[in-house]
Amino acid sequence: MTHDPQQDLARRLDRLEADVHQAHAAARRWRAAAGGVVALGMSLVLMGQTPDRTVRGTSFVLEDASGRRRAALQTVNGRPHLTLFDSQGKPRIDLSASDDGRGTLGLLDGDGKVRAALGVTPTGQGSLVFRGPSDETRAALTIGNEGAPGLVLNDQAGKTLVSLGVARGIPTVGLRDGVGELRALLAVDGQGVLRFYDAAGKRTHQLPE
């Protein structure tokens, strides 16, 4: 029987399509969880914590020579938080850890909005999330438990339109429509294949055939 590399790639892409959908859903869940952790921590930090010159068991405030708060180490709902402030007293960096082992580092703009968040889940999945001025997620870089990288790019409404990744040893680029359905998938494994899908997610064309 003649070995057909093109058919081998097509079979691998059949399996890969399911992986792409699963990775997209996982990245969406992690972005929401990471954003929630940082947002919760910062909302509590910004609830009017007053500078304190004493060292306590649950809170430590670092001030500069002018008495301005520059850093705060405290527990919020049992979760440790380290927050760094700029010279105007605005929080700019927040580092936290949860009881289940999740760690999150949030970078904030001058309005107190999280613009970038770096985190690791208890199972070892890492993610770097970037947010826009309206708190929408614009890009997310994730590393799965098995080390597979993925990158998603979103529109102003936070909907994923472009996804890039490497799964099963195959680099892929996925293009989605405004409702999140995969409409085109480009993959390369020795040779390239381009697949197209309708609005229901059913494959309609493939190049080369």
Write the layout of secondary structure elements.
Layout: H1 5-45, E1 59-63, E2 69-76, E3 79-85, E4 91-97, E5 103-108, E6 114-120, E7 126-131, E8 137-143, E9 149-154, E10 160-167, E11 170-176, E12 182-188, E13 192-197, E14 203-207
Describe the structure.
With about 210 residues, the protein is of the alpha+beta class. The protein has a domain at about 5-45 and about 115-205: Outer Surface Protein A, domain 3, CATH 3.90.930. Helix content is about 20%, strand content about 45%. It has one helix spanning about 5-45, and strands spanning about 60-65, 70-75, 80-85, 90-95, 105-110, 115-120, 125-130, 135-145, 150-155, 160-165, 170-175, 180-190, 190-195, 205. The protein is elongated and about 70 Å long. The relative contact order is 0.14.
Q: Which features characterize this protein?
A:
20% helix, disordered N terminus, 1 helix, Outer Surface Protein A, domain 3, 14-stranded antiparallel beta sheet, 209 residues, alpha+beta
Would you summarize the structure shown here?
This protein has 209 residues and is an alpha+beta fold. It has one helix at 5-45; strands at 59-63, 69-76, 79-85, 91-97, 103-108, 114-120, 126-131, 137-143, 149-154, 160-167, 170-176, 182-188, 192-197, 203-207. It has one helix and 14 strands.
